[in-house]
Specification:
Order of helices and strands: EEHEHHE
Low-confidence stretches: none
Distance between the termini: 16 Å
Number of helices: 3
Largest sheet: 4 strands, mixed
Helix content: 25-40%
Strand content: 15-25%
Number of strands: 4
Length: 85
Amino acid sequence: MLYNYYFTFGSWEKFPFKNGYIIIKARSLSCAIEVFKVLYPNEGNEETLLCSDFYTEDQWARASENHKMKYFGTISTELINEEKR
């Protein structure tokens, strides 16, 4: 079974997206992080992800609407499926 993992971005110029988020569908958070690292490598530091934060489905569902609104409508959401990579 695949779950949604949300990776959010602020306005830092090195982020692959600005002020938005993507969803990676994966079997686990660790798998989603590995997919993210392959797609958006941080060449300066492999241990640090090029995103502001990441959330499981449960964490995203519990996040306040005010918090989520920072990421809606600013960029199109990209959906990445672990099984298709």
